[in-house]
Amino acid sequence: MPDLMDTYIENRERVQPNHANNLDTAHGGNVMKWLDEVGAMSAMRFAGQNCVTARMDQLNFRRPIPVGDTTVIESYVYDAGETSIRVRLKAAREDPRTGEQELTTESYAVYVAIDDDLKPQPVPDLSVPTERGRRLRERALEGESPRPNRDGG
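Below the sequence we write its predicted structure tokens.
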């Protein structure tokens, strides 16, 4: 049974001019792509198989990320259904000179485990044995929007 902390991934992307909009800040589409890619990595680590994005919701852009800053992406699995995997996603801007961080973007995503024929596959139960894992899971569950059913769709 995979542990929540086994799915925790933190990644960084340096915001370059080719990632920017006309305001010299990271284009929202790039931030969304980075979140989705890291979220898929957490889902695949949890499921032990390929996963595809089924839904992203509550993609909230709180502040911009200037060119030259680093985008720090945090991702972890906090819940699972029969074939679906719920992932918490956050991005922060980081000054590469000082390490100072500020939350910029938050989201929740659902991924579905699939086989080679693209058919949904069962996923394991999520284990949350550590205090840090329990805090992360609790915060994710408190912040997500209501959903029609527990299997993500």
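Helices lie at 28-47, 131-143.
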